[in-house]
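lol forgot to send this yesterday, sorry. struct tokens for the thing we talked abt
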């Protein structure tokens, strides 16, 4: 190591500056800085740059570059303009830019995921709320029908008190109670309905002439839970509606539920607003 190199290295170490820091500050390649400290000027790109590099080195470590060049002018090679200077590597911002974009993309993906989760939760909450309202409306409709029929029968009986005065014994009034269709539960994708005050199940399915829906009807044995297919087919503009009458429990499977209207004993059964498969079980009780 030369005397000049020792002087420069000592000043650098006293300042606590590493060669990497100096390379970043002076833009001189690290191996050239090491060559200056070792006095190995042949490694440098040319004698013209020796003085310039020593000047930059001295300024970086706080030395007077003019004094350093004057004291060691005998050991510093004479200046000679040469080409092919090998520039110090500059740090590129490509990696930082890539990392920045990666963080942005990750943030966008996370925000989209949470928005999707909240959207799905809101959808299912609204769907369950609407299903509960439909079931309540069905029960209220059945109760209103029952009350209306009872009132009509009482009114008719009161309006004609003198019709049977000649008879020794008054004729009893026949009270007709309309059938009641009630949703009892929903499990495993099946809506279960009980039909009471009736000895039969009148099933009607219809679709608009601009849509279609396939169906399958199975006879159900409640005791064994066994099913036997009764009929399957498709309702469309050529056959927009069908009706059946059963004296036993049946199950219904719709292929595009939102396109169909289902009635049991004249009561509309909610099918939902999604074009997916929907299953029903109707039991006489």
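and heres what i got for the seq, position by position
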């Amino acid at each position: 190591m030369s005397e000049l190199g020792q002087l420069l290295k000592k000043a650098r170490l006293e300042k606590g500056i590493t060669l990497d820091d100096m390379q970043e500050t002076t833009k001189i390649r690290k191996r050239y800085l090491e060559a200056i400290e070792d006095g190995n000027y042949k490694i440098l790109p040319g004698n013209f740059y020796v003085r310039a590099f020593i000047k930059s080195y001295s300024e970086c470590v706080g030395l007077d570059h003019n004094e350093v060049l004057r004291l060691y002018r005998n050991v510093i090679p004479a200046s000679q303009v040469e080409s092919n200077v090998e520039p110090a590597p500059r740090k590129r911002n490509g990696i930082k830019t890539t990392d920045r974009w990666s963080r942005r993309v990750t943030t966008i993906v996370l925000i989209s995921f949470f928005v999707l989760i909240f959207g799905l939760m809101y959808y299912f909450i609204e769907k369950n709320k609407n299903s509960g309202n439909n079931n309540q409306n069905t029960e209220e409709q059945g109760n209103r029908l029952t009350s209306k029929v009872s009132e009509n029968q009482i009114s008719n009986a009161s309006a004609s008190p003198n019709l049977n005065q000649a008879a020794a014994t008054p004729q009893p009034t026949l009270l007709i109670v309309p059938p009641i269709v009630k949703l009892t539960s929903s499990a495993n994708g099946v809506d279960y309905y009980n039909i009471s005050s009736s000895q039969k199940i009148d099933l009607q399915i219809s679709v608009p002439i601009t849509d279609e829906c396939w169906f399958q009807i199975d006879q159900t044995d409640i005791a064994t839970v066994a099913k036997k297919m009764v009929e399957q087919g498709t309702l469309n503009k050529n056959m927009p509606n069908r009706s059946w009458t059963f004296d036993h429990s049946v199950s219904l499977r719709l292929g595009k539920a939102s396109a169909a209207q289902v009635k049991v004993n004249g009561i509309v059964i909610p099918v939902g607003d999604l074009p997916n498969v929907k299953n029903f079980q109707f039991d006489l009780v």
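The longest strand covers residues 226-235. anyway ping me if u want another try
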